[in-house]
Specification:
9-stranded mixed sheet, globular, Alkaline Phosphatase, subunit A, alpha/beta, about 625 residues, single chain, 22 helices
Length: about 625
């Protein structure tokens, strides 16, 4: 078996075996829960096998790691112990993978979730699992394990792993070269290919039905990812006081003297278009005391809109902003809730409420929504249409991360032209994210510094933002559309920052613009302290729709609303009030605290910020 042809054939057979193994497990899952699939189109059900393929390939490559090493050893030696060791490894993999598949099938009916790191808590008490299982579950589990293990070993012995050896000259040199080549290919398979963004669960998400997405996501990949990233969540990490006190302070923070909504629209039956601006810091905006001549088109819009001058991002990454905006849930330090389907499925959805009110909802992005597991989160939000770079015509130019903004602005304008009203549509820009490889077809900044490439990318985005509004202003739906322009998070600029995790750094633009905005309010500014989590509640209140599920936000159009903003600061928090700001966090082994403004407020801000974070973290862990 030791020549190269036999090596390649054996490796391919092993790879195909695991793909078949996963497909059989998926089929078994669908058969067991066929009653939950009765009303779904069979084509959509069958599609879970094709959408599962990328994560299945990644998982198969992980399982091939040790067999590759053993195959290379067989190029060097004919010793029997290599074959024995392979069968030991293969049997352990079979048992482990079989247990995960059958365990997920067993608990899914009760949990309605995939296996996660929480299973480790139950494995500490294995007798409880056995005693709480039904007789049919135990019989099915034993029969399933026999089928998987015995069937897998039999197939491997007969068709995959051969023991005949024909050593050739210089076997060890060939073995090392083969190990490097096949190991490299295996690594590419693990990360999902050559894309800049490694594979996530989003690669398998395709349906608005949770059970089909759960079937498509490889259970082994999902469980290992969950254990690696979430199992070590320390429940006492942010315990500053007793939980009752933290909850009381949190409740008092959101207590509003009067539920009085100031209308900003001439009527509430309007379309809503959200333009989510990648990495746009307030430093880019002249109207927010930023630089001139970077975002001139945005500043032109400010003259006829409502600019919120003290809006802060809740986090430092796009997936955090998307969750905060569309589910009204703050960013949790150390963890991104979008990475954990078992947790974010508890969150409300702004797009879903719009859908229930008769709106068509859509999300457009020129890049890859695998990043931050965003695609799966958007499917949870139940957007009717989700378009990413891979869905766009192949003729469109592409940079390293995706389609440049000028083409996506044009594509979005074209999509809105034929979109059924009323609609809620989101356009998430891309070009102001590194590596800043946008076309050099617009004027550049006259600032020379380390951040000049970023500033040029923002100016490029702003140029095509202006072209976008010039293109759509004569559309019949334009006069009935509210535009919301908001930065997803900040970015270092040429302007000196006080501190990377200061409130100043978190400062992002927020603008309400459009013909439905009351004429008397156009060109005005609002200095209420607010953040991403306030958007859903505030806009829904203007539209006369139910917003009571968004319990973490406040209404920015209620002059009696409390003024504060929370943001995650690495492993800690930042807390902003009108007169001061305060932050506490760890950076490695060193502890930092930071304050700015009236220092007499620091003790109060510290107490409020800690209580808010403790209540937030406890809520996250309970989901």
């Amino acid at each position: 078996m030791a020549n190269m042809k036999q090596y390649i054939v054996t490796l391919i057979k092993l790879f195909l075996f695991w793909l078949l193994f996963f497909a059989v497990g998926r089929l078994l899952f669908l058969l067991v829960y066929h009653h939950a699939l009765a009303s779904l189109p069979w084509k959509e059900i069958a599609a879970c096998f094709s959408h599962a393929l990328r994560l299945d390939i990644s998982t198969a490559c992980y399982l091939l790691t040790l067999p590759i090493v053993l195959l290379c050893l067989k190029l060097c030696t004919s010793r029997r112990w290599v074959d024995i060791l392979f069968y030991i490894v293969f049997t352990i993999e079979l048992v482990g993978c079989g247990l995960i598949i059958l365990g997920e099938i067993g608990v899914y009916g009760e949990w309605e979730n995939k296996l996660s790191y929480k299973i480790l808590l139950y494995l500490q008490r294995p007798m409880e699992i056995i005693t709480t299982a039904t007789t049919m579950q135990l019989i099915g589990g034993v029969a399933g394990m026999i089928f998987f293990v015995a069937g897998g070993l039999c197939l491997c012995r007969r068709a995959i792993w051969k023991t005949d050896i024909k050593l050739k000259k210089r076997p060890c040199i060939k073995s090392v070269a083969t190990l490097l080549l096949s190991g490299g290919l295996c690594f590419l398979g693990m990360r999902g290919g050559l894309d800049a963004i490694p594979i996530t669960q989003s690669a398998a998400y395709y349906s608005h039905h949770d059970i089909l997405n759960d079937a498509a996501v490889n259970p082994h990949w999902n469980l290992l990812y969950s254990i690696a990233y979430f199992h070590n969540a320390d429940p006492d990490r942010y315990r500053y006081t007793d939980d009752a006190t933290a909850e009381r302070i949190f409740t008092e923070l959101l207590d509003t003297e009067k539920d009085s909504i100031t209308p900003i629209l001439t009527h509430n039956k309007v379309n809503v278009v959200i333009i989510l601006l990648e990495s746009w810091s307030a430093d880019l905006i002249e109207s927010l005391s930023g630089s001139k001549n970077i975002t001139d088109n945005f500043n032109h819009l400010v003259q006829n809109g409502i600019l919120f001058t003290r809006t802060y991002a809740n986090g430092h990454r796009s997936q955090q902003a998307i969750c905060s905006i569309f589910s009204g849930f703050p960013s949790v330090p150390m963890y991104d809730i979008t990475d954990n389907h078992n947790k974010y499925r508890h969150l409300p959805s702004w797009p879903q409420i719009m859908k229930d009110a008769g709106y068509h909802t859509s999300f457009y992005f020129g890049g890859n929504l695998d990043y931050g597991n965003i695609r799966s989160f958007l499917l949870h939000c139940n957007f009717d249409t989700i378009v990413e770079g891979a869905d766009m015509p192949s003729s469109l130019p592409r940079g390293k991360l995706g389609i440049p903004d000028e083409y996506m602005f044009a594509a979005h304008a074209e999509a809105l032209h034929s979109m059924q009203e009323p609609f809620m549509s989101v356009l998430f820009t891309l070009s102001s994210h590194s590596p800043y490889d946008q076309p050099k077809n617009t004027e550049e900044v006259d600032i020379q510094c380390e951040e000049t490439p970023f500033l040029n990318s923002a100016k490029y985005c702003d140029h095509w933002l202006g072209e976008y509004f010039d293109k759509i202003k004569n559309e019949p739906w334009y006069a009935n559309t509210l535009f919301i322009l908001v930065g997803d998070h900040s970015h270092p600029t040429h302007i000196s920052k006080r501190y990377h995790f200061s409130a100043d750094y978190q400062h992002v633009p927020l603008l309400f613009y459009g013909e439905p905005v009351m004429p008397a309010l156009r060109g005005t500014q609002n200095d209420m302290v607010c953040s991403h989590v306030d958007l859903a509640l505030s806009v829904l209140s203007q539209l006369g729709l139910d917003y009571h599920d968004f319990t973490w936000g406040k209404n920015i159009f209620n002059p009696y609303s409390p003024q504060f903003a929370f943001y995650e600061a690495l492993s800690g928090y930042g807390w902003i009030r009108p007169r001061a700001e305060y932050a506490e966090f760890h950076n490695g082994s060193k502890y930092f605290s930071y304050g700015l403004g009236d220092s007499t407020y620091y003790p109060i801000l510290k107490q409020e910020g800690r209580a808010y974070l403790q209540y937030l973290y406890n809520t996250y862990l309970q989901y």
